[in-house]
TrEMBL record:
Molecular function per GO: kinase activity
Cross-referenced SUPFAM superfamilies: Actin-like ATPase domain, Winged helix' DNA-binding domain
Protein known as: Sugar kinase of the NBD/HSP70 family, may contain an N-terminal HTH domain
PANTHER family, per the entry: BIFUNCTIONAL UDP-N-ACETYLGLUCOSAMINE 2-EPIMERASE_N-ACETYLMANNOSAMINE KINASE (PTHR18964:SF149), ROK (REPRESSOR, ORF, KINASE) FAMILY (PTHR18964)
Keywords annotated in UniProt: Kinase, Transferase
Database matches in Pfam families: ROK
Family: Belongs to the ROK (NagC/XylR) family.
Length: 381
């Protein structure tokens, strides 16, 4: 279903206004006009439909810091719509319901019966049913792989998918707008608009989990290329003496930082299988093998953070993913490696850590659904 058949689209100036309020609100009309280059009359005209439909509201009166007179800022009515965000892995669907600023209300997880498209749609259905989310305005889905057009999954290795139009399939099953995006792109968008990097124009995102992901925002825009979704950040060289990754790269970021690789290294030394939580716990308790593995990975993480800051010239790095518990156990090793690889006169790198669970990934999916649809006024009946 096309946007034209779902909604009457408010043209770019109006959508820019709505998004500016979404990202920066509550915001005074004067400041909003300055940001968008709009006159007071244009601002009033463009904001009126959103106010009439209850999407924007006037926030409580406050004093203007410039002229000292009372003003009524514009803000988003965050409960005007609910969004469903789902993160799809090779085994599960993780789902959250959020408001219009991607604040998570409830979450749910379900196992996939298989890797077919219908299996995934059935998983989304179970999540929707469990969350009583049948009133959501849109669905966002994130997946580890290459996605184009916010719909077509070109490649998803964990599901063995090639050229699957997941967005169209979701819209056909659930009869509402769907946005599909690479999981790291979606998470980066959530951090930029609503999360730990809100208000920061230049930052990078590093994710640690089953693999290693990398996102970058420069001058307020996420850097997207034709190679986005191929997992290139997962093979950045970090240690020439490190273990091999599945692609044969020695000491790359995946070999040094992915959860499976860290657990495999610890298992060799311990002589038994160890999961990630136990690995971190053993390291914290002072187990020699676990401590060595964790500190080695911590140094690799510090090198990757420093490389991002040095090459992309960012001063803020957001860490996310289910593996970022590494930072808490190997913090000294991480920071020492960052300092070692940075010019002593360079500004310190600010490291911001998100939640270490799959909720952050599903929240990212909801965020791209918000980005895609916000500023569309429903058609009159």
């Amino acid at each position: 279903m096309s946007d034209a058949s779902r909604d009457s689209v408010i043209r770019d100036p109006a959508r820019d206004l709505a998004r500016e309020v979404l990202i920066h609100g509550p915001i005074a009309r004067g400041e909003l006009g300055r940001r968008l280059g709009l006159s007071p009359a244009s601002l009033t005209r463009l904001s009126r439909p959103f106010l009439d439909h209850g999407i924007l509201v006037e926030a409580p009166e406050r004093q203007d810091g410039v002229v000292g007179r009372p003003v009524k800022p514009l803000d988003v009515r965050v409960d005007a719509q609910r969004m469903l965000g789902v993160k799809i892995t090779g085994e599960r669907v993780f789902g959250v319901v959020t408001d219009l600023r991607a604040t998570v209300g409830v979450s749910e997880t379900t196992l996939l019966a298989g890797h077919g498209v219908e299996d995934v749609l059935d998983g989304i259905q179970r999540v929707m049913d469990a969350l009583d989310a049948h009133d959501v305005a849109a669905i966002g889905a994130s997946i580890g792989g290459k996605v184009t057009g916010s719909s077509l999954v070109v490649r998803a290795p964990f599901l063995d998918w090639h050229d699957v139009d997941l967005g169209a399939a979701i819209e056909a099953r659930f009869d509402r707008p769907a946005t599909v995006e690479n999981d790291v792109v979606a998470l980066t968008a959530a951090e930029q608009w609503f999360g730990h990097a809100r208000g920061i124009d230049n930052f990078s995102v590093i994710t640690i989990g089953a693999g290693v992901g990398y996102g970058l925002v420069v001058h307020g825009r996420q850097v997207i290329s034709s190679d986005t979704g191929l997992g290139l950040g997962g093979h950045f060289p970090l240690d020439p003496t490190g273990p091999l990754c599945a692609d044969g790269h020695r000491g790359c970021s995946s070999a040094m930082l992915s959860i499976p690789s860290m657990c495999a290294s610890a298992g060799v030394g311990l002589g038994r299988v160890v999961d990630y939580d136990e690995l971190l716990a053993l390291a914290a308790e002072g187990n020699a093998v676990a401590r060595q593995v964790v500190d080695t990975s911590g140094r690799a993480l510090g090198r990757l953070i420093a490389a991002s800051a040095n090459l992309a010239m960012v001063e803020t790095v957001v860490l996310s993913g289910e593996g970022i518990g590494l930072l808490g156990v190997a913090e000294d090793a991480v920071h020492a490696a960052v300092r070692a690889d940075r010019d002593p006169d360079a500004l310190p790198v600010e490291i911001r850590r998100t939640d270490a669970d799959f909720t952050a990934w599903a929240r990212g999916a909801a965020a791209v659904a918000i980005q895609s649809g916000f500023g569309l006024i429903p058609s009159a009946a």
